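$ ./design --mode recover --in tokens.txt
reading tokens...
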């Protein structure tokens, strides 16, 4: 099995600013932060790592939590935040949603994506507000012979590199949950146009916008049953939220580790920055938050991976969406001016703000948490002993 490509041995976040590296096995992986998401995906596929994310290597059997955590931690250790996002969306959502379909068109794309030969974009967010999904305008006109897709999607990871788009479209007007259907649209089909998002922060993920001008396809491009688009999305976005929490723990751990090495190596008065009480406490507070996220992730993972528990997934997303930006903000501050170097902590901090937005903003997932408040409070209760 070939190993992943090894290039730049840069530390976190800028080699010239980093303190001497320790020998922790987690931190010996060479980093190549210039690697694109599609190249990272190809490397994971070539190394045989993509299949380990699924039980028995079969995407239709569901997520193997340890496998997913290992692959995300590997991507995070070696590549940039955008490159890891590119892999995460495909592993947790795009491939499992595609696998709800059958037929030659679906199997062809699934095989190519699972081997790392091709990337697949998941295009749910429309030209309308992403937090108002049932208002999406992209249409799939379905008849006995096929489907015609018309509309547009914005801020889609892997858009500029994808061989195919998995498009959430409406086959009927109105907000009812049964009005939506997935369609597999080849990127080279007549009527498809892609333009990159103007984002230096996320260019490496292939982020872009795509429009569909009466794209005509055969019925084999319908993925799953007509009208089941939204329930399928809800199930699999739960797994994306778990993936975000697993990745968030790995990212915070790596950044905290790099920051600790920076602080312990940076001379200050008679000691180092690490010897300053306020610095240590600030760091420790961030460490506590990561441990909380880690504990919650461990506790919730079986329910999300096993039966798509939407409440547990929303809770995880709300936690990751606040913890990751907090921890990276604290670390960026502790890097001082060096944090502003190209590719430095301030850039990573800005990229990590996506944890509170992509795949469900913090406000939206907190609404879901609030809906389940009664159950959560019940779960926290203990028997009051008679006196
Ligand atoms: C780098 C990147 C990659 C992405 N990749 C993908 C992808 O691969 N596939 C895909 O489908 N989408 C993708 N997205 C889109 C992402 O899922 C959306 O950005 C997200 O769902 C939020 O939608 P929006 O940006 O339209 O925000 P809006 O809907 O415009 O909301 C803006 C803000 O309004 C506030 N708000 C909204 N609703 C509420 C509410 N109910 N209560 C309180 N406040 C609220 C929140 O503060 C929110 O951040 C990506 C986005 C980025 C930036």
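writing sequence...
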């Amino acid at each position: 099995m070939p190993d992943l490509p090894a290039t730049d041995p840069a530390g976190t976040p800028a080699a010239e600013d980093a303190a001497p590296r320790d020998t922790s096995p987690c931190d010996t992986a060479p980093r190549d932060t210039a690697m694109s998401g599609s190249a990272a995906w190809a490397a994971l596929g070539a190394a045989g790592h993509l299949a380990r994310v699924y039980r028995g290597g079969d995407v239709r059997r569901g997520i193997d939590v340890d496998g997913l955590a290992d692959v995300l931690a590997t991507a995070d250790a070696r590549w940039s935040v955008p490159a890891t996002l590119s892999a995460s969306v495909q592993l947790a959502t795009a491939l499992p949603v595609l696998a709800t379909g059958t037929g030659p068109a679906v199997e062809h794309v699934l095989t190519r994506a699972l081997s790392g030969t091709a990337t697949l974009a998941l295009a749910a967010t429309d030209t309308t507000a992403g937090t108002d999904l049932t208002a999406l305008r992209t249409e799939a006109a379905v008849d006995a012979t096929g489907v015609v897709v018309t509309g547009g999607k914005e801020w889609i990871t892997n858009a500029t590199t994808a061989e195919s788009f998995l498009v959430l479209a409406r086959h009927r007007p109105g907000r009812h949950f049964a009005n939506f259907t997935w369609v597999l649209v080849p990127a080279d089909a007549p009527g498809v146009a892609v333009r990159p998002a103007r984002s230096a922060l996320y260019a490496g993920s292939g982020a872009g916008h795509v429009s569909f001008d009466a794209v005509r396809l055969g019925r084999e491009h319908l993925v799953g049953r007509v009208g089941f688009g939204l329930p399928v999305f809800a199930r699999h976005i739960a797994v994306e939220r778990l993936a975000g929490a697993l990745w968030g723990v790995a990212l915070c751990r790596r950044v905290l580790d790099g920051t600790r090495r920076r602080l312990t190596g940076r001379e200050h008065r008679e000691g180092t920055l690490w010897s300053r009480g306020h610095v240590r406490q600030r760091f420790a507070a961030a460490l506590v938050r990561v441990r909380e996220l880690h504990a919650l992730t461990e506790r919730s993972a079986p329910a999300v991976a096993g039966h798509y528990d939407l409440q547990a997934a929303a809770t995880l997303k709300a936690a990751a969406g606040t913890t990751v930006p907090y921890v990276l903000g604290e670390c960026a501050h502790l890097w001082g001016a060096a944090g502003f170097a190209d590719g430095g902590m301030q850039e990573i901090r800005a990229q990590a703000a996506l944890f509170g937005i992509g795949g469900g903003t913090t406000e939206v997932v907190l609404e879901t948490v609030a809906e389940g408040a009664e159950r959560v409070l019940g779960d926290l209760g203990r028997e009051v002993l008679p006196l």
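exit 0
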